[in-house]
């Protein structure tokens, strides 16, 4: 198990409170007066069907989409009232479309995570290099360091973007489908890594079984509101899955993990 102490020598984790948030995409109200909380150090999943509002909600936390009503609070402070530097030192995001173009190497992409700690024209320090190396090692991407980012596979890019977020040393990680494009081994490795970090994590996931194993709590989104919330054992029921996803299922306790395990049933 890889040590995270070089990145988080002093443990810190932020609280997150979303209070009555409404969000629109154009004229469409995507999120409706939604409230949720994430305690310091928790790993919490947002799950729900496509179009339920997961990505839109996350955008309000990493300050791409300002709420029409309500507030996003990090450690009790309005996230939108923080300076750009302070917000970037506290919150790191891994998004589905990173928009990275050009001939940047993997090392240069990961080094972007150190930007909130630098003044204009500051170069990289020995400490920065240590953090970069640690972050790449944690996501099993050290061998990609000198490769052009745009030449990587989808799964390799995803791991590099997670490494970039880690170099920010955030107290709150916001991840939109962090297992996207990853093979099974790296899905398990990345989610296990999030569990070991002393930071708080809120992540949108499609895989209910992975969420059940690795997350402390879950919120189920449907049509822009919270349809269910609680521990995986409380949330993952055949009735909820039928109502929200429109499919039949069986839910049992896995004999090894102790987590609920969902088996989806084909339509008769």
Structural summary, described in words:
With 268 residues, this protein is of the alpha/beta class. The protein has one domain: P-loop containing nucleotide triphosphate hydrolases (Rossmann fold, 3-Layer(aba) Sandwich), CATH 3.40.50.300. The chain contains 9 helices and 12 strands. The strands form 3 sheets. The protein has a 6-stranded mixed sheet, with helices on both faces. The chain has a 4-stranded antiparallel sheet with strand order 2-1-4-5, with helices on one face. Strands 11-12 form a two-stranded antiparallel ribbon. Helix 4 crosses helix 5 (154-167). The protein is globular. It starts with 15 loop residues before the first strand and ends with a strand.
Question: How is this fold's topology laid out?
Answer:
Blueprint: E1 16-25, E2 28-38, E3 43-47, H1 54-61, E4 69-74, E5 77-78, H2 84-90, E6 91-94, H3 106-111, H4 126-138, H5 154-167, E7 172-176, H6 184-196, E8 200-204, H7 208-214, E9 217-222, E10 225-230, H8 232-235, H9 238-245, E11 248-253, E12 260-265
Parallel strand pairs: 3-8, 3-9, 6-7, 7-8
Antiparallel strand pairs: 1-2, 1-4, 4-5, 9-10, 11-12
Helix pairs in contact: 4-5
* CATH homologous superfamily label: P-loop containing nucleotide triphosphate hydrolases
Cα end-to-end separation: 44 Å
Provide the succession of SSEs.
EEEHEEHEHHHEHEHEEHHEE
General form: globular
Instruction: Provide the CATH architecture.
Output: 3-Layer(aba) Sandwich
Kindly report the spatial arrangement of strands forming the biggest sheet. Answer: 6-7-8-3-9-10
* Helix-and-strand structural type: alpha/beta
**Beta-strand residue percentage:** 25-35%
Instruction: Summarize the biggest pleated sheet.
Output: 6 strands, mixed
Number of domains: 1
Question: Would you state the CATH class?
Answer: Alpha Beta
Counted by DSSP, the helix tally is 9
Q: What is the gyration radius calculated from CA atoms?
A: 19 Å
Low-confidence stretches: none
Q: Please, what is the average pLDDT?
A: 94
Q: Estimate percent helicity.
A: 25-40%
CATH fold field value = Rossmann fold
């Amino acid at each position: 198990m890889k040590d995270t102490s070089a990145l988080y020598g002093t443990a810190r984790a932020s609280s997150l409170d979303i209070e009555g948030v409404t969000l629109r995409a154009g004229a469409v109200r995507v999120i409706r007066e939604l409230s949720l909380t994430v305690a310091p150090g928790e790993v919490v999943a947002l799950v729900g069907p496509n179009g339920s509002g997961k990505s839109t909600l996350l955008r309000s936390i990493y300050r791409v989409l300002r709420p029409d009503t309500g507030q996003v609070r990090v450690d009790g402070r309005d996230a939108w009232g923080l300076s750009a530097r302070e917000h970037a030192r506290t919150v790191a995001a891994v998004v589905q479309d990173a928009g990275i173009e050009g001939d940047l190497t993997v090392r240069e992409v990961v080094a972007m995570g150190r930007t909130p700690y630098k003044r204009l024209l500051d170069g990289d320090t020995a400490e920065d290099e240590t953090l970069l190396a640690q972050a790449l090692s944690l996501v099993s991407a050290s061998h990609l360091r000198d490769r052009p980012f745009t030449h990587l596979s989808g799964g390799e890019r995803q791991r590099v973007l997670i490494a970039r977020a880690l170099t920010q040393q955030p107290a709150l990680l916001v991840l939109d489908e962090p297992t996207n494009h990853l093979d099974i081994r790296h899905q398990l490795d990345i989610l296990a890594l999030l569990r070991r970090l002393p930071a708080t994590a809120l992540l949108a996931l499609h895989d209910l079984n992975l969420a059940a194993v690795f997350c402390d709590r879950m919120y189920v989104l449907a049509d822009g509101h919270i349809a269910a919330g609680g521990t995986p054992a409380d949330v993952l029921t055949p009735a909820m899955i039928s109502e929200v996803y429109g499919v039949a299922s069986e839910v049992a306790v896995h004999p090894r993990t102790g987590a609920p395990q969902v088996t989806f049933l084909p339509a008769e």
